[in-house]
Every structure is written in C-alpha cells, then in structure tokens.
C-alpha cells in the first residue's frame, strides 16, 4: 500500500483525487488504458500529486469489486450519465479510507473538494455524506492505519478471468489471483557494455539503493524498493534499464550470436531489442518491427539513450510483403501481441479492459503471425515465441497446434525439465511469461 504521509491539510491534494477519478472514468467507461489516461489527467499537477493520483488509481483498479460493493451499498440509486464520475470519486475516497495511510479527515475533505474541481459543486454534500457513512461503519484502523477491505469471492477478478485462471492453473490459481493484486517489484537490467552486474550492484550500494542479483537472469537486479529512474547511477547514459526479470530471459533463450541475422517482431518499446544489442555487436543490423508508430518512438528514444542502433520497420508483421527484403533470418524473436494476463500486477486495468472473447481473437492473430513469419526463418534457424500471458490458449495450445501443422518445426526444450516455459506472476519475483523455442528443420 502507498506510503502517503499521515497528515494533509484540509482539502489539500484535492486535485490528485479529482485526477484519479477522471482517469478511472476514462479506463472504466471509455476503455482507455490507465497508462494513457493517467498522464493526461495529471498533466498539470506537481510531481507529488501525480504520484498520489497514480497510487490511488492503480490501487482502486486492484480492488475494484470490493470498493464498488462498499460504495454501491450506500447509494440509493446508481450514479449515471454526467454524475458517473462521482461514482469513481467515491471509490477514490473509499480506497483512501481503507487502503492508504492518509488521515481520515484529510482523505474526506480532499475528496469532497475534488467534487468541486470535477464541476460537481452541488454534490459535495453527497460525497461527504457517503464517505462519512463509510467511516462510521468501517472497522477501526489498525496501528498502520489500514482497514481490512471486505473479501471478494473472486479475489477482485472478473468472472471469466477467475474461471480461466482456475481452469488453466488449478494448483496455483489462489496464488496467481493474490499475486495479481500486489505491487510488483522493480527490476533492472544491467548493460554489460558498461559494467558487470557486480560492479553495478556496488554503484547502487554507494547510492544507498538496496538491491539483489537474480539467480538465473544474468543481467537482472531486483530493487528492494521502487526508485525514480533519475536516481539510478548511469540511467541517462543507458548503463541500466528497467525490465522485469522474466522478460530478460528472452535474450538467453534466443540463443543468438553476433554473426546471426536477427529479426525482432513486435519490438516496441524495445526492451528485448536493447538487451540483445547490449550483449552482442551484430555483424548485420538487427531488424525490428512494430505496428504502432507511437510505441516505435519509444524504441528510438531507448536506442538513443544507450547509443545503439537497429533497422526499424513500422508495419504489420504478418504482411511480410510490405517490409521483408527476401533474405531469411537465423533467429526470430516473436514477442506476440497477447492478453497480458501475466502482467496484471503492473497493469491492473487489464482485468477490466480485457473480455473473454478477446482471448480467441488474440490466439487467431498469434497463429496468423506465427505462420506468416515461419517462411522467413532459415533452415536450421530458431524462432523464440514469447508472450506475457498465463493462458494456455495463447501459449501451450498455440504451440501444440503450430507443431501439428508445420512438419518442419520442432521444439528445443527450454530447460532440462521443460519443453516450454510458463512462468507465473510472482514466480522468482518476476512477471507471468511464456517461452517456446521453435527450430526449423535443415
Ligand atoms: C508485448 S509488446 C512487445 C514488447 C517488446 N518486445 C519489448 O520487449 O519491449 C507487443 C507489441 O506488439 C505490437 N503489435 C501488435 N500487433 C502487431 C502486428 N500485427 N504487427 C506488428 N506489431 C504488432 C504492439 O504494438 C506492441 O508494441
């Protein structure tokens, strides 16, 4: 839970509550992602208010059904139309009372004042009345000023996802559901062109940043507490990047060397691409493709920060005639578009934006991309299929059906025990990820 100061002046911080309510409205009513809605809603706020609005909106999305139930029970009739934003403001208020270390009176007054900022001055009494009712009925806070939220039988997941997780991972379902509602750790990837991981750990120690090296992802460091990137030694010069440890395994599994001709599909914002470039001085430029021009701008920025380069195509990867020069690749990394159900800890909006029917659509798209790319692989070449999904349909089932259709394709086992690798959220501290190494017959 957030580490806000316990006391705030009356009404102080109302802007951050109003911004959180607006961002939540955009996500839950308009289907926008929180990572797009939040910067817009908080663009005019000072950094401290931005951080508070972010902590509140991410937090609300983690426990949305529990908060909806609390607030819904206090409303005579649902808030609709132009008043709907007040529903989200009430969730913002309830979240502070239950889940944040903010004094009750400060939380209530700032939230009531936020109603005015949202243009609902006449409804300040309603917000005040409901938050005070919640306070009267709330269990008293413990020493750390935390109240326990009423339980939700699906651990604050939508029914379809709760069922899919239980179906695909019956033994681990409880753990996955609980992990999905936690705050993920911050992981770094050390750029081995500038320092060894041990050297970088010493630099972190000198900067009073506590961290631990990962046991198997050889460039990965887990910070004991999140830290603004500006405080990381050498961040601006590309000495280190932020990347989850599960994602860092791609650079190992691709089994690449400097002589290989390499294609990175679905490359933006460039995390795995940069990792490859940091590790190898390729004889031919790596080619990277993504369909989203905005996200490709981030690839450009990241390459520039690290002083590295690649050939970038903005294209639909499946329409190979539009961008392929006809020369096959030794290695293809396909970080396929997916449900992102492995990274719900980082993006809790995924729980509410994804629909059950999206999964079949995504599986169709993945299948189409895989079969369009296969002819681009040299005989004897390898394609690494990766997703940040934990759903079988996008992962094991997808690969099994590909292997049935492509007689020249076989699996190279990822580890001695596993043909493919399904990492679950929180496993080794990392995100949920899937990897399969496909080899093309000679
Ligand atoms: C999981 S993200 C990739 C993350 C990236 N590999 C990294 O390590 O930073 C998936 C990407 O697929 C891209 N994408 C989705 N459909 C695509 C398509 N048909 N062709 C090319 N890129 C696509 C999205 O724009 C998105 O950037």
Automatic annotation (TrEMBL):
It is found in: Cytoplasm. The keyword Cell division does not apply. The active site is at 388 (nucleophile). CDD domains: AdoMet_MTases. Its EC number is 2.1.1.176. Residues 176-441 form the SAM-dependent MTase RsmB/NOP-type domain. Pfam families: Methyltr_RsmB-F (PF01189), NusB (PF01029), RsmF-B_ferredox (PF22458). S-adenosyl-L-methionine binds at residues 266-272, 290, 316, 335. GO terms for molecular function: RNA binding; rRNA (cytosine-C5-)-methyltransferase activity. PROSITE patterns: NOL1_NOP2_SUN, SAM_MT_RSMB_NOP. Keywords: Cytoplasm, Methyltransferase, RNA-binding, rRNA processing, S-adenosyl-L-methionine, Transferase. Its main location: cytoplasm. Gene3D superfamilies: NusB-like (1.10.940.10), Sun protein, domain 3 (3.30.70.1170), Vaccinia Virus protein VP39 (3.40.50.150). GO terms for cellular component: cytosol. One of its GO terms (biological process) is rRNA base methylation. It catalyses: cytidine(967) in 16S rRNA + S-adenosyl-L-methionine = 5-methylcytidine(967) in 16S rRNA + S-adenosyl-L-homocysteine + H(+). PANTHER family: NOL1_NOP2_SUN FAMILY PROTEIN _ ANTITERMINATION NUSB DOMAIN-CONTAINING PROTEIN, NOP2 YEAST -RELATED NOL1/NOP2/FMU SUN DOMAIN-CONTAINING. Belongs to the class I-like SAM-binding methyltransferase superfamily. RsmB/NOP family. Specifically methylates the cytosine at position 967 (m5C967) of 16S rRNA. This is 16S rRNA (cytosine(967)-C(5))-methyltransferase.
């Amino acid at each position: 839970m957030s580490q806000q100061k316990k006391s705030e002046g009356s009404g102080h911080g109302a802007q951050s509550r109003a911004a959180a309510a607006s961002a939540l409205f955009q996500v839950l009513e308009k289907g926008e992602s929180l990572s797009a809605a939040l910067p817009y809603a908080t663009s005019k706020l000072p950094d401290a208010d931005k951080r508070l609005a972010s902590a509140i909106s991410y937090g609300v999305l983690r426990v949305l059904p529990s908060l909806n139930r609390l607030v819904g029970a206090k409303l005579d009739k649902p808030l609709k139309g132009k008043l709907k934003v007040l529903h989200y403001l009430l969730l913002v208020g309830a979240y502070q009372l239950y889940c944040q270390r903010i004094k009750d009176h400060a939380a209530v007054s700032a939230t009531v004042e936020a109603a005015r900022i949202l243009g609902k001055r006449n409804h300040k009494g309603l917000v005040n009345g409901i938050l005070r009712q919640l306070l009267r009925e709330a269990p008293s806070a413990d020493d750390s000023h935390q109240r326990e939220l009423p339980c939700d039988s699906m651990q604050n997941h939508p029914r379809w996802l709760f069922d899919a997780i239980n179906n695909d991972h019956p033994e681990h379902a409880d753990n996955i559901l609980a992990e999905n509602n936690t705050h993920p750790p911050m992981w770094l990837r050390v750029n081995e062109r500038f320092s060894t991981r041990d050297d970088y750990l010493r630099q972190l120690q000198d900067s009073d940043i506590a961290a631990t090296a990962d046991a198997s992802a050889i460039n990965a460091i887990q910070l004991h507490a999140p830290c603004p990137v500006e405080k990381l030694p050498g961040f601006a010069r590309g000495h280190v990047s932020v990347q989850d440890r599960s994602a860092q395994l791609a650079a190992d599994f691709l089994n690449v060397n400097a002589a290989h001709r390499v294609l990175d599909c679905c490359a933006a914002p460039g995390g795995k691409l940069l990792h490859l470039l940091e590790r190898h001085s390729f004889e031919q430029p790596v080619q990277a493709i993504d369909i989203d021009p905005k996200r490709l701008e981030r690839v450009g920025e990241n390459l520039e920060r690290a002083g590295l380069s690649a050939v970038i195509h903005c294209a639909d990867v499946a329409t190979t005639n539009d961008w392929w020069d006809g020369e096959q690749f030794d290695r293809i990394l396909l970080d396929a578009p997916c449900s992102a159900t492995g990274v719900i800890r980082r993006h809790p909006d995924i729980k509410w934006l994804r629909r059950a029917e999206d999964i079949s659509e995504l599986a169709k798209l993945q299948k189409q991309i895989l079969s369009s790319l296969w002819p681009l692989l040299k005989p004897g070449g390898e394609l690494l299929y990766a997703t940040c999904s934990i759903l079988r349909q996008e992962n094991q089932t997808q690969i099994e059906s590909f292997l049935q259709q492509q007689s020249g394709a076989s699996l190279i086992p990822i580890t001695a025990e596993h043909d493919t690798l399904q990492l679950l959220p929180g496993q080794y501290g990392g995100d949920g990820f899937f990897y399969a190494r496909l080899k093309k017959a000679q």
